[in-house]
Design a protein that fits this description.
Part of the signal recognition particle protein translocation system, which is composed of SRP and FtsY. SRP is a ribonucleoprotein composed of Ffh and a 4.5S RNA molecule. The structure is a single chain. By secondary structure, this protein is of the alpha/beta class. The protein contains 20 helices and 8 strands. The longest helix has 23 residues. The structure holds guanosine-5'-diphosphate (GDP) and magnesium ion (MG). Guanosine-5'-diphosphate binds next to helix 5.
């Protein structure tokens, strides 16, 4: 995946303060390959990489994560932004009937999506919806929509044989007005490839129906060709948005980026199956994740960035340089683990913590245990915390009583601290805090 690749690129960067232009450029070569592999169109990938390079140069590398992840995050954020972080639904706030027209290539999913949207609007939004098929090319296309209409319990315009698309549109508009419909959905014909006759037909229909929404329906598996489709439709019909279908398949998400870049219009919905309720608002974050192929790396990085305060890390680093790790340090690590759900900066690095972390992940240890450890340290004197070796049997009894625990519990805590302190000495040998943090990625 891209994050693996970037990891390699950034190995040599570890421990540095900020990204230089050369660092970023070499990373961006990897990003470009990843985008092309995800079927993003070449000119779109090129522009994206240029934009992100500008953003990433000079960016401070967070201490808590590897530079590779930091760049992945920058790339991810840029992808989300480019895919449209706002989620825009349909704009139907007009004097009824609002007209929604769907255009696109043959087989892209226009007819299915028309019915899905009609179901959505008539159900959840309680609109009175009528659908009309203007597809006079494909045999039985109008009947197909009528069948879907019955399934989703939405009215369809009665079929009149031999009528041309513009005339059907005119008739549909009239019927919708007369019968008090809130929304008129126009399903149109497609072609296997973009051709001028199709474009002329779309333009003529749009002139007659003056739609509030003209939605380009694109199969997300279209890949590199998506750009041509988008460019052609976008140049000739005033699109208001895009709908990507077959997002339930193994589309790599590149079409989404190309669509958005070329049309400049929001991707409003994603089709996620053949069933008539398989449509959902478009989620840029998920698609960005798909393009980068990095699962939850980004959310992990974000979590780390939120939870680790720079001063904390700074202070800890200073102590580790001296090979010191007392119970105060342990306490702040425990607090961090609680904040991060078992994902403290040092957790996983250190034998004692690794066990605790695994136990927490498996549900065997919960927050209560971390709180109990915190209570034990809380019951110790300042001296005891700084110098655990002075905690005698007598003191252990006092600490156990004070924290509502047992002497065995106190022993376990002290043993864990001992293991960690030993590990800290090892870390010091490995190059200190920075060396250790770079291994956390
Ligand atoms: P049109 O030619 O653009 O009207 O395309 P259709 O609506 O007739 O759809 C073509 C095929 O794609 C049909 O078999 C649909 O069931 C299928 N389809 C449409 N949208 C989706 C989707 O989001 N996911 C999946 N898996 N199939 C879809
Ligand atoms: Mg159709």
């Amino acid at each position: 995946s891209l994050s693996d690749r970037l990891g390699g690129v950034f190995d040599r960067l570890r421990g540095r303060g900020a990204l230089t232009e050369a660092d970023v450029r070499s990373a961006m070569r990897e990003v470009r390959v990843a985008l092309l592999e995800a079927d993003v169109a070449l000119p779109v990938a090129r522009k994206f990489v240029d934009d992100v390079t500008e953003k990433a140069v000079g960016h401070n590398v967070l201490r808590s994560i590897t530079p590779g992840q930091q760049v992945v995050k920058i790339v991810n954020d840029a992808l989300v932004e480019m895919l449209g972080s706002e989620n825009t639904g349909l704009d139907l706030d007009v004097t009824p009937p609002a007209v929604v027209m769907l255009v696109g290539l043959q087989g892209s999913g226009k007819t299915t999506t028309t019915a899905k949207l009609a179901k959505l609007l008539s159900g959840r939004e309680r609109k009175k919806v009528m659908m009309a098929s203007l597809d006079v090319n494909r045999p039985a296309a109008q009947e197909q929509l009528a069948v879907l209409g019955t399934q989703v319990e939405v009215a369809t315009l009665p079929i009149v044989a031999g009528q041309q698309p513009v005339d059907i549109a005119r008739r549909a508009l009239q019927a919708a007005k007369l019968q008090g419909y809130d929304v008129l959905m126009l399903d149109t014909a497609g072609r296997l490839h973009v051709d001028q006759a199709l474009m002329d037909e779309m333009k003529a229909v749009a002139d007659i129906a003056t739609p509030n929404e003209i939605l380009l329906v694109v199969d997300s598996l279209t890949g590199q060709d998506a750009v041509n489709v988008a460019q052609n439709f976008s140049d000739q019909v005033p699109l208001t948005g895009v709908i990507l279908t077959r997002m339930d398949g193994d589309a790599r998400g590149g079409a989404a980026l190309s669509m958005r870049a070329v049309t400049g219009k929001p991707i409003k919905f994603a089709g996620v199956g053949e069933k008539l309720d398989a449509i959902e608002p478009f989620h840029p974050g998920r698609v960005a994740g798909r393009i980068l192929g990095m699962g939850d790396v980004v959310s992990l990085v974000e979590k780390a960035a939120q939870s680790i305060q720079a001063e904390d890390a700074e202070r800890m680093a200073a102590r580790i340089e001296k090979g010191k790790f007392d119970l105060n340090d342990l306490r702040s690590q425990l607090a961090q683990m609680r904040r991060m759900g078992g994902l403290g900066a040092l957790a996983g690095m250190i034998p004692g913590m690794k066990k605790a972390q695994a136990a927490m992940a498996s549900g065997a240890v919960d927050e209560k245990i971390l709180l109990r450890m915190d209570a034990m340290i809380g019951s110790m004197t300042v001296k005891e915390r700084a110098k655990p070796e002075i905690i005698s049997a007598k003191r252990k009894i006092r600490v156990a009583k004070g924290s509502g625990t047992t002497v065995q519990d106190v022993n376990k805590l002290l043993k864990m601290h001992q293991e960690m302190a030993t590990a800290m000495k090892r870390i010091k040998k490995m190059g200190g805090m920075k060396g250790m943090l770079s291994m956390l990625g």
